[in-house]
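Lab notebook: predicted structure, single chain.

Context: the supervisor wants predicted structures on file for every construct in the current expression panel, including those that have not yet been purified. This is the next one on the list. No modifications to the sequence; it matches the entry in the shared construct table.
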Amino acid sequence: MNKLMDQLLAEYSTLYDYVYRYVRVRVSNEDVCRDLVADIFLKAVEKIQYFDASKGSLRQWITGITKHHLLNHWKREKHTFALEDFDLPIMPKFDQLEFDQLIDHLPQHIQQLLTWRYVDDLTYEQIADVTGRTPAALRKYFSRLYKKLRNEYEAY
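Prediction complete. Output recorded below exactly as produced.
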């Protein structure tokens, strides 16, 4: 175990930067983000004996801890919002960079949903646990959102 702890300490600054950025993209409040990152590293220290290098790198292992910790945080926070109330802006013609910038300007709740689904690869069931919506409602919402984004993009 001391060898594993030494490895964690040796990679701490690199891992800290990685975990902080990972969490910061997904949590808008910086103080909450810092608290979550601290909790994640405490959990990593507590569970270091379960790290198995044959199953992946230390970074992959701590990413798993981070994802689970964020899911638990979101469940506790119970992010709720009415999916029907989302109104997307009309989108001009754009390239990939402009598209990325446009996504940055979407309302925070839409960005969060898109991040959970397409960046974090959460299932509809996992997102439903966090938002309090049903998986069926989320599937329908994402289907409509995708069609709207695609149609507006193709219109230009």
